[in-house]
């Protein structure tokens, strides 16, 4: 017994060795830097791709729902329906079609982001005051120009609020993608659980939350840049 | 698509449902987990949120807890719980392996929507109704119990409903740490490349999620002070329902609360 203790003391075990297994460990972060970086990059890539795909699908859906009021109930109904399907169930549902690829995760997460974004877009466009739309028409704006030059800019605050919710929840949900081995930081969390590796688990979890906060702040900043008029009013 | 025939075969084989580790047992386990976590979250969150709403304080906290909750992945939380010395992976009665860890993670997950909605619900009670209650000489407690609570109930319930379906869906994640519930069927089938089985588990979870959503919607409709479809403004006193806030009060408030409740 004494022999063992002396041996390990001589080696000076790092804080992430099996015997110590500390939660917070700077040595781990330094030694596995590239692994952590790769996972983070994958996490960001999957999140951004999912949200972008979500926006691309949500936009025409919102426009169609606005144009044809009869569609609106079914569009909202379908998007609510998607949200009740758990992510852990959705990925396996997609695997027969898309295989064990990042595509599976991106499509699944885009579907979730979509449900939030469609609602936000519809609400934002609806919140544009009628008299503004009418005066734009009076100035000779066609439907397309009206949408892009008048309605969308005015809807930005509401749409951005939806985008923030969608992005933050996508960052969190990406971890579940570890089920198909593409979960970014989720892969580290998963590995941390199965090998009882506390430093890895804790670092990945903290990075995940930090990433969500960072993206949230970036969107708020983007909104400030995109809607300079709201700042003028407040000041 | 042999996957779908496999799935159907798995679903229709009675042997897969019965016995220890069968889908029926896992289903009940997950329902038990869901409702216990929801009850815990309601017991912890509702009193605090309603009280804060009544006082009109702590709004920043009550609103932002939702944003924080969204940013923390439940999987990460669950993983931390399971790996820590407490609660660890200990089996908890009928909740199965890592039962306590799953229960804690799900309760924390359910708290934000419940707290935020309950707080907003009480704050949304129109000022004139609150003033009328004060004018009638109601004490703070009376105002809360007889006016604010009945009027806030639909929105409070919609928060609980939201949490119910989300907790049920999220409970499957327990399988990622070899915990209890139907997620097991999904991950099992998945890792043994028995996609039919995985798909079967996914379908059962989705179907129950939809059933819970419909059930919760029905319960919520029962609790509405004015039945939906009836235009509240034009028929005051037509059906004040179970609310004790006075007919006029309940009518004008439900008018204001309804669109908010429909958002969820």
Automatic annotation (TrEMBL), chain A:
GO terms for cellular component: plasma membrane. Coiled coil: none annotated. SUPFAM superfamilies: MetI-like. GO terms for biological process: glycine betaine transport; transmembrane transport. Its main location: membrane. The keyword Transport applies. CDD domains: TM_PBP2 (cd06261). The chain crosses the membrane at residues 44-63, 75-94, 100-122, 154-181, 201-222. Keywords: Membrane, Transmembrane, Transmembrane helix, Transport. Residues 40-219 form the ABC transmembrane type-1 domain. It is found in: Cell membrane; Membrane. It comes from the Bacteria. The keyword Membrane applies. It is a multi-pass membrane protein. Pfam families: BPD_transp_1. Belongs to the binding-protein-dependent transport system permease family. This is ABC transporter permease. It comes from Nocardioides donggukensis. The lineage of its organism: Bacteria, Bacillati, Actinomycetota, Actinomycetes, Propionibacteriales.
Automatic annotation (TrEMBL), chain B:
Keywords: Membrane, Transmembrane, Transmembrane helix, Transport. The keyword Repeat does not apply. Gene3D superfamilies: MetI-like. The chain crosses the membrane at residues 31-53, 60-83, 95-115, 151-178, 198-219. One of its GO terms (biological process) is glycine betaine transport. Residues 226-264 are annotated as: Disordered. Residues 255-264 have a biased composition (Basic and acidic residues). Residues 27-216 form the ABC transmembrane type-1 domain. GO terms for cellular component: plasma membrane. It is found in: Cell membrane; Membrane. Residues 235-248 have a biased composition (Gly residues). It is a multi-pass membrane protein. It comes from the Bacteria. PROSITE patterns: ABC_TM1. Belongs to the binding-protein-dependent transport system permease family. PANTHER family: GLYCINE BETAINE/L-PROLINE TRANSPORT SYSTEM PERMEASE PROTEIN PROW, POSSIBLE OSMOPROTECTANT (GLYCINE BETAINE_CARNITINE_CHOLINE_L-PROLINE) TRANSPORT INTEGRAL MEMBRANE PROTEIN ABC TRANSPORTER PROZ. This is ABC transporter permease subunit.
